Amino acid sequence: KQWYQRRVAITAGDADITVLERGPQGGRLQKVTIGSRDYDSGGSIIHSENIYARYLTKIAGLEEEDLSKDSGSFGLYNGKEFTLNLQGGILDKLKIFSHFGFGLKGLVKETEKIIQSLNRIYCLQNNKVSFKDVSAMLETLDPLLLKLTQHSMQDVLRDAGISDKIQDELLTGVTHSNYNQDIDKIPALVGYISTAGGVVGNLWRVRRGNHQLPPKVLEKSKAKLVFAKVTKIEKNPDADNFHVTMETPEKAVTTETYDSVVVATPLANADIKLAVPGLPQGLKRPMQRTIATFINGVLKDLVPGSRNPNDILTTRGADGVFSSIGNKGKADKDFNYKIFSKRNLTQDELDDLFEKINDVRVVDWEAYPKYSVDKDLPSFSIADGLYYLNSIESAGSAIEMSAIGAKNVALLVYQHFTGASNPKDMYTMCLKKKTRVSDMKDEL
Q: What are the CB-based long-range contacts (under 8 Å, 24+) for 332-335?
């Protein structure tokens, strides 16, 4: 877990930026090594429409690895059998439409519409438009986006005429894999963001792992890195700044003063006291516990006589011990697998799944918000000069969403110091403009 002041895709200039980091750099983007191979414990895939991730990869001197040429082998498992088992053959598309019907076209169309609306943020932020809260951001991009946070994915899909089969099997499988939660609980916007990778565009990752991004970008930012656990942020009653109390790895407690502070970790598990008058409501939202279990060995056939696909997603009612299983490929010995579950798996449960186990690595983490539709969206602005990056996760949790939140709070800090305001002539232009990686500006 971490707390730090972060600046994304902008140069430090005259600013003196300090990053206070509790744990390893990257927070939830960490490396796991098993079977002599390295993997991302979370945040392992990126969508082709994610402009900031592509831009940061470029300026960090890293390379993109296209995943569209992967075999595409995946299956939907209901706890007893595969309702759909695709092995990456040329007839897979025909099998998908035969199984789900043409309702998939409606899902694709709606998802494309949502992605198009979300993409307006790049033009607005590129032209120094910021937002004090998540609701204002979404409503500006498209009022529909805000409405989608107020209804469950299940309700919105039913109203759109999407079949129960698509919901119960495909979309439940995707949200189990991406958020470890069900479509009757998550807001529709979160569901569409989760779905985008499977139905719109292509997927990619940073070659040799997305976990390389945070330290590389931090190095490029020229910010000062200090390893310390922040315990308290207090508004200075006598000046326009903040006192930040921290504890070093050697247990030394110190307090430093900063002109502006950005909180960039979920407050629900950060154990940071905010001594600030008039705190906004809803900042501490519960997180969804997810266990990532990496196995080097050989997985049994889940259904006797049926070959396992590379990616196994669970449908509604599967009620098994896992949410998804991914075959990560050959290792020096046998194969490597990644299992998502809501609790630690027992040795007996692992033995039931695997015919051979050589090694096990477990990452127990609070991976994303525990979503519901009965909560107001939080504010980015805690107080003038104090900002909360992770508010963006209430709309969707992903590497790109964090980058959007980071750019937004960087703009708020910029406006706080300079007195600048949002340009009024950008909204109409940005409704139609498509932003590319080459359009990104290095400075505010």
A: 332/35, 332/36, 333/35, 333/296, 333/358, 334/35, 334/296, 334/297, 334/298, 334/358, 335/35, 335/296, 335/297, 335/298, 335/299
Type and span of the H or E element at 351: helix 347-353
Residue 304 CB-density burial (10 A; 0-12 exposed, 13-18 middle, 19+ buried): exposed
| Neighbouring C-beta atoms of residue 107, cutoff 10 Å | 24
Whether the CB-CB separation of 315 and 78 falls below 8 Å is answered with yes
Whole-number Å distance between alpha carbons of 198 and 170: 10
The answer to whether 130 touches 411, Cβ cutoff 8 Å, is yes
Pairing of strands 229-235, 242-247: antiparallel
Distances from the Cα of 267 to the Cα of 70, 272, 387, 391, 420, angstroms: 37, 7, 12, 10, 29
**414, two tokens:** 């910029």
> Residue 40 is inside which H or E element, if any?
strand 37-40
- Digit-by-digit pLDDT tens for the chain (444 residues) are 233 333 333 344 578 899 999 988 888 899 999 999 999 998 999 999 999 999 999 999 999 999 887 767 899 999 999 999 998 888 888 898 899 998 888 899 999 999 999 999 999 999 999 999 999 999 999 999 999 999 999 999 999 999 999 999 999 999 999 999 999 999 999 999 999 987 888 899 999 999 999 999 999 888 999 999 999 999 999 999 999 999 999 999 999 999 999 999 999 989 999 999 999 988 999 999 999 999 999 999 999 999 999 999 999 999 889 999 999 999 999 999 999 999 999 999 999 999 999 999 999 999 999 999 977 899 999 999 999 999 999 999 999 999 999 999 999 999 999 999 998 878 888 877 777 766 666 554
